[in-house]
User: What shape does this take?
Amino acid sequence: MYCIICPASVRQTVNCRSLTGSKPDERSEMRAYSDRASPTAVTREGATLAVGRDVAIPPAVAAEALRDTWTWTEWGPAIDGVESSDRHVRNGTTGRVRVGGAWLPFRVTGCDARRWDWRIAGLPATGHRVDRYAGDSDRCRVVIEVPLVAVGYVPVCRRALDRFAALVERETGQFS
Assistant: This one.
């Protein structure tokens, strides 16, 4: 895995355990980068960029919070408003989000306990997932998957994950 969009001057190599609990190796080495001290990292996963951040809450709590449409405007910098058929998205949830003053329809195209994908205005959009760490039930990694063609959206996702982490770590009781 590697960082695709960071200048070498702000890049640092971080050896980390893979999410399956194996020892660090070349495949589990991630290149993290600093954007005003953001603890997010970007890796390429096939045709997507995975913007990820560790969060100090259990995976199930993070997944529930990530699906909660009532909080999207609090942590999603691009989202100014949400109207949804379900408070917590599930497969088939529909609604609309206000982005830059325009209301755009969305539909959740896939959803399970720790992952959901959607289409906005009929186009494939970001994927959202929560990865758990083997042997660590009080910490997880929240990831937003960005199609390569939308590489310019990565900084927005990094800010979103920082805001998401601050929200759920501060108010964990609200989501459990």
